[in-house]
Write a sequence for this structure.
């Protein structure tokens, strides 16, 4: 038989037999169980054994080990997102003990900077943003707690299985655990249109978002094609899309989730009750003043909804079906207005009186307790979910067969077993999904995460398409290594820090990035890892490095997003209220507010994903906007000035001393002979601002922007 | 510029990497280097148009008051929407409101007798260069999704804008200016910069907002007033350091590309202000664009800038008229559209005249439209709600057949009936005129070969001359 005919038979035979899946789909590598094979002998560790065996088969070897300075810069940037200081370089170069490097790795992994670095990758995956998107792009005032949760989780080395469970179903699985509740913000990061006219369509879009995100983030499969039809290549059925979606069918936004200890809440409530008692009359009068305006506003808004939406307001909660209850929630948010909004509608005497009462009310402010910490989360609406249907062409109003929650049919065709959590108003659906994903038996979960972490250190995943483990994605270059890592990851309690350490301790990681023409001829893309792959700093890391070398970096952690000045801030007006506390302008990049409709320009030009969907691997592009920003932006000039001041302060008055110190700050090393000569020449011709300009140029240089 | 590029780089390259430098100075070197994202790429077939000027009337102009007369609607004025049209979800819940006729006076213009209302008397003079498409339709009810779709093909944000796809597909024809430029006449359009985002495409392809004032591009001018000489000297030093760094790393084309990107930044610092400098344009030209009248001065200026940009090889220019949703006439459409038509009529007519007299119209595709049209039923008695089900766009130049009207809406102008053209279809047609097959402009993303038209797109041959 010809090869073509063979393929044809392979494609057609299962169909004739009535199987749901084609044979090539059943053989899909990523769904086969993880098998931990014994590594080939002869290497110091299993990872190198696997990598070197593949290299040897092609007659290739690792390049020589990288020099100490290069290695320190590499591992420091990789694990903390910041370059090493000159002092750290000196200490490492002076440490002749055999475990000097390992001590550095341990120090970096123990540093809180590690969590900030690792969190940035996860925030890409989570499509994290501090605003809603769409037209209004309203601020999500408390969503930053999720960002801080992620940073903390990495710093504490929270086991990855637990990390998954908390994000998907922390409210159900760990009731009473504030962090686990904050973690459910993961499901809340969808872009949303708060005033959507077509509520059922909007609901469907949110469900699509969460289905796509969860599948890609945790399972590395792209299911969106199955929204309309069976996936053409991967064994993902049209119905599987809706089986997965059904786990979320009963979710609702819960933006007022109080995340404080019970005693703190009790104290707050007590004080609040006292304040309410004292201010009862004032508030009652204020409320009355607003009644009419509120009624007008609500009526006007309500009239825009179609009759079936208006009708759900006529029903009590008990009378509403679960779907009607969800519609009610979404519609209610559009017809409820804050006192502040309504009071702006008042006129004349009513307005004056309202302002007077507002002043009176303020006299009681000292009695009012501080607001409790609140998180923006996703929880279940009730114990009964609305039905989920397969949708024809993905259209919200074209239901076909009903489905119940279930996993990918090729892995488990049965309906999922759902156990409602005792004592909670929740279906338990998300717990079932979380337990299935965060299980050692799931062939995808551990593979996807070890691959993603591998990618952060080696610049390319073992599966290069780290978001797509499907049949159209890249095949693993080292399938046995991938399985070995996945199995070890689970054995080591899903510890991400242990995995990081395992990877950066390898000879593969510690080799030089030097080019070799004969190796390149055999393996031009360096898939086999005959050398280390050079990488550019991400936009966040460029900014953090600029702040660090100029001595401006404020290491303060956590809290609401900050708004540093940006070249287009004037045009953004209220959307970008520049932070007034000066030191807060220089916080690490991960703390900069993420406004969906106005990404921070420096990060955007350096390929920060746009936060509208999950991103597993960033682009790495060269574009003129990057150069214009680093060359001309006031912020970068400020770094250069501060760095120059630091150099002047640290070093002598001779140009050579200053140049040497500036190089040490920027690159962690002294200038080489030609560099010094070139710098001295530059100093002579540049005049008064030479040192500032030198610092500015160093920040713009390729050596600063790339890690070898 | 006090130091020209050749001087600067001849000095910068003293004794170093002479071959690479020579390549840098050769205009076509970019094409040979795969890492240059803006390198010109061959189209799929010979193009009709080299550039696109997209005139985006943001907020949704009323097709039934501009290009699509509906005598039947006038007869039915005051009556409810006939039951036969079925229930409608509209943005403002106006589906049960009574029908509202158009008080406009209509005339046929040109050889072809194309209908245009009295709101657009100047544009009407150009109908013989235009195809009017009365049967456009879109998916969104609200502005932000609809503006997003008209730009990216999807009402959900995150996809690349059409201009970004075009730049990705064809590269740049001007190495000193951005290839995809966006101009606003007021504030930002709804949804902001994501409307010209590169989406999942590499960042190089995103649109660049051209701003009012002497610094048209963010960071085009050094902060703190750095002289040209000082800047050039810094760049020379930077290049020296980067060339030293390149020793032993010469295999890495990205490092080389970044050196070149600084050279481009430097050139753009001169080319950008030159492109937007209107001081050499005559008073007659400015008047042609309506710049001598207060109402049309700003949009007229943008239209004139658009011509200057396409003259300089900019691939895709998007001009927002009424940016921030000004055309959104939920009430008092008479006042709203009267004003905005006066804002846009003369500048657009001037642009068409000017392109034609300079021989640029043949190679420049001009597209006019909003994100949707407006409803035949009233809102608040004298306004109209959003209508994505049927609306008018027109195209001129760049391979478009002149003097024809294509497609129809129903008798009241609610829905597209004959030859319906979805936004994805319109994008497919624009790409076609640029020599690109919309199903072959592909970028792998999250497991799918993504394309500008997502899963749709139909090229309508009737548009082309």
């Amino acid at each position: 038989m010809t090869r073509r005919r063979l393929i044809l038979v392979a494609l057609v035979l299962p169909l004739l037999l009535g199987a749901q899946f084609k044979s090539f789909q059943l053989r899909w590598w990523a769904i086969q169980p993880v098998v931990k094979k014994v590594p080939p002998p002869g290497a110091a560790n299993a990872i190198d054994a696997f990598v070197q065996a593949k290299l040897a088969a092609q007659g290739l070897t690792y390049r020589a080990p990288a020099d100490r300075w290069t290695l320190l810069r590499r591992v420091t940037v990789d694990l903390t997102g910041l370059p090493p200081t000159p002092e750290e370089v000196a200490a490492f170069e002076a440490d002749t003990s055999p475990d000097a490097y390992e001590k550095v790795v341990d120090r970096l992994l123990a540093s809180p900077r590690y969590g900030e670095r690792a969190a940035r990758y996860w925030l890409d995956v989570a499509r994290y943003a501090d605003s809603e998107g769409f037209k209004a792009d309203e601020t999500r005032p408390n969503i930053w707690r999720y960002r801080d949760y992620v940073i903390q989780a990495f710093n504490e080395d929270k086991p990855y299985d637990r990390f998954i469970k908390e994000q998907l179903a922390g409210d159900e699985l760990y009731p009473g655990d504030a962090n686990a509740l904050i973690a459910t913000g993961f499901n809340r990061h969808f872009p949303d249109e708060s005033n959507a006219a077509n509520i059922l369509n909007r609901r469907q879009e949110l469900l699509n978002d969460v289905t796509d995100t969860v599948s890609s983030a945790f399972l590395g499969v792209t299911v969106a094609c199955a929204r309309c039809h069976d996936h053409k290549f991967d064994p993902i059925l049209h119905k599987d899309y809706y089986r997965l979606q059904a786990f979320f069918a009963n979710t609702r936004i819960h933006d007022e989730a109080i995340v404080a200890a019970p005693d703190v809440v009790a104290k707050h409530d007590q004080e609040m009750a006292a304040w309410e008692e004292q201010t009862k009359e004032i508030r009652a009068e204020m409320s009355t003043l607003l009644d009419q305006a509120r009624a007008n506003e609500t009526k006007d808004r309500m009239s825009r909804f179609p009759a079936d939406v208006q009708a759900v307001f006529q029903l009590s909660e008990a009378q509403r079906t679960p779907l009607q209850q969800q519609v009610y929630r979404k519609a209610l948010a559009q017809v409820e207005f804050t006192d502040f909004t309504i009071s702006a509608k008042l006129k004349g005497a009513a307005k004056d009186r309202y302002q007077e009462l507002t002043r009176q009310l303020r006299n009681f402010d000292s009695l009012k307790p501080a607001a409790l910490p609140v998180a923006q989360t996703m929880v279940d609406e009730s114990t009964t979910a609305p039905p989920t249907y397969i949708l024809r062409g993905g259209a919200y109003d074209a239901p076909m067969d009903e489905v119940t929650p279930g996993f990918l049919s090729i892995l488990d065709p049965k309906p999922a077993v759902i156990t409602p959590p005792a004592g909670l108003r929740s279906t338990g659906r998300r717990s079932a999904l979380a337990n299935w994903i965060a299980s050692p038996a799931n062939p995808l979960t551990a593979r996807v995460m070890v691959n993603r972490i591998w990618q952060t250190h080696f610049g390319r995943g073992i599966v290069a398409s780290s978001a797509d483990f499907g049949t159209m994605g890249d095949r693993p270059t080292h399938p046995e290594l991938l399985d070995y890592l996945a199995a070890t990851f689970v054995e080591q309690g899903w510890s991400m820090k242990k995995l990081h350490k395992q990877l950066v301790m390898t000879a593969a990681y510690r080799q030089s990035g030097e080019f070799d023409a004969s190796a390149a001829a055999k393996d031009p893309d360096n898939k086999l890892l005959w050398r280390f792959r050079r990488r550019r700093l991400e936009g966040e890391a460029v900014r953090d490095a600029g702040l660090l070398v100029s001595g401006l970096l404020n290491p303060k952690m956590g809290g609401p997003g900050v708004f540093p000045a940006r070249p287009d801030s004037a045009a953004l007006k209220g959307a970008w209220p520049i932070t007034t506390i000066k030191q807060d302008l220089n916080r690490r990049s991960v703390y900069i507010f993420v406004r969906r409709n106005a990404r921070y320009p420096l990060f955007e030009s350096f390929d920060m994903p746009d936060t509208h969907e999950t991103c597993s691997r960033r682009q790495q592009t060269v574009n003129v906007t990057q150069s214009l920003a680093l060359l001309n932006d006031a912020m970068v000039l400020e770094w250069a000035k501060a760095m120059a001041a630091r150099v002047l302060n640290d070093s002598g008055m001779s140009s050579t001393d200053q140049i040497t110190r500036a190089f040490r700050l920027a690159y962690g090393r002294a200038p080489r002979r030609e560099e010094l000569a070139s710098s001295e020449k530059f100093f002579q011709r540049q005049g008064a601002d030479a040192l500032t300009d030198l610092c500015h140029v160093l920040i713009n240089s390729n050596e600063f922007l790339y890690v070898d | 510029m006090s130091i020209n590029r050749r001087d600067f780089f001849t000095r910068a390259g003293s004794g170093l990497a002479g071959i690479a430098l020579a390549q840098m100075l050769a205009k076509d070197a970019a094409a040979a280097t795969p890492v240059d994202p803006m390198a010109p790429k061959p189209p799929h077939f010979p193009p009709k148009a080299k550039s696109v000027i997209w005139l985006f009337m943001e907020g949704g102009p009323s097709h039934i008051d501009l290009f699509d007369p509906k005598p039947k609607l006038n007869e039915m004025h005051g009556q409810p929407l006939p039951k036969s049209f079925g229930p409608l979800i509209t943005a403002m819940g106006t589906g049960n409101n009574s029908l509202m006729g158009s008080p406009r006076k209509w005339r046929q213009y040109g050889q072809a007798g194309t209908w245009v209302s009295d709101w657009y008397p100047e544009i009407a003079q150009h109908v013989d260069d235009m195809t009017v498409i009365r049967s456009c339709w879109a998916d969104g009810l609200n502005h932000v999704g609809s503006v997003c779709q008209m730009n990216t093909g999807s009402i959900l944000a995150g996809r690349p804008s059409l201009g970004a796809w075009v730049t990705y597909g064809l590269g740049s024809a001007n190495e000193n200016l951005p290839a995809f430029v966006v101009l606003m006449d007021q504030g930002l359009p709804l949804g902001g910069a994501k409307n010209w985002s590169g989406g999942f495409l590499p960042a190089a392809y995103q649109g660049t907002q051209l701003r009012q004032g002497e610094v048209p591009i963010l960071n085009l001018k050094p902060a703190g007033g750095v002289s040209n000489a000082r800047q050039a000297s810094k760049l020379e030093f930077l290049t020296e350091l980067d060339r030293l760094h390149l020793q032993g790393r010469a295999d890495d084309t990205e490092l080389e590309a970044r050196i070149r990107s600084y050279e481009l930044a430097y050139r753009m610092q001169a080319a950008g202000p030159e492109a937007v400098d209107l001081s050499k344009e005559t008073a007659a030209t400015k008047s042609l664009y309506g710049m001598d009248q207060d109402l049309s001065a700003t949009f007229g200026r943008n239209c004139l800038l658009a011509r200057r940009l396409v003259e300089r090889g900019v691939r895709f220019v998007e001009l927002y008229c009424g940016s921030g949703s000004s055309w959104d006439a939920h009430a008092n459409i008479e006042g709203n559209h009267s004003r905005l038509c006066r804002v846009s009529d003369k500048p657009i007519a001037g642009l068409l005249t000017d392109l034609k007299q300079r021989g640029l119209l043949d190679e420049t595709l001009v597209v006019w439209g909003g994100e949707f049209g407006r409803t035949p039923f009233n809102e608040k008695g004298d306004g109209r709600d959003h209508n994505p089900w049927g609306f008018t766009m027109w195209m001129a130049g760049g391979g478009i057949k002149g003097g024809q009207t294509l497609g129809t809406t129903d008798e009241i102008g609610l829905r597209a009936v004959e030859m319906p053209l979805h936004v994805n279809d319109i994008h497919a047609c624009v790409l076609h005129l640029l020599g690109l097959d919309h199903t072959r402009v592909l970028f792998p993303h999250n497991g799918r070969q993504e394309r500008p038209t997502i899963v749709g797109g139909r090229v309508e041959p009737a548009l082309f001359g």
